Recover the amino acids of this structure.
């Protein structure tokens, strides 16, 4: 069974957790993916390891870590893959894949143009 774990940076603002939770629920409804969780790299809970474990406990055999990060950097290139490898080592029968950061999507330009026009 496929799962998605939406991963965001985390913040001390409670509004961020609320926004990520709503985004996760919306994406779950839009995709029809039954196991759709969210987690945070820092500050907020659940953390990434806990989010991955939740997906596995719910019966997932394939997890997409959906990066809610704009660009590559230390977190995207090092920190998150390291956490994923630790969980992968604990659960070698589970397939875990990482998405590209949002800024690498070919339609990012259209999103920014839309924001410019709306503002």
């Amino acid at each position: 069974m496929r799962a998605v774990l939406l991963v965001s940076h985390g913040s001390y603002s409670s509004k961020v957790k609320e926004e990520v939770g709503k985004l996760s629920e919306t994406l779950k409804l839009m995709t029809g993916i039954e196991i759709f969780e969210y987690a945070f790299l820092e500050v907020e809970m659940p953390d990434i390891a806990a989010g991955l474990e939740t997906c596995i406990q719910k019966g997932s055999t394939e997890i997409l870590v959906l990066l809610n990060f704009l660009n590559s950097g230390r977190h995207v290139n090092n920190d998150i893959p390291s956490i994923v490898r630790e969980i992968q080592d604990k659960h070698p029968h589970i397939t875990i894949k990482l998405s590209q950061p949002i800024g690498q999507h070919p339609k990012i330009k259209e999103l920014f143009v839309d924001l410019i026009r709306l503002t």
Observations:
- The mean pLDDT is 97.
- The first helix runs from residue 14 to 31.
- The longest strand covers residues 2-8.
- The CA atoms of residues 5 and 52 lie 7 Å apart.
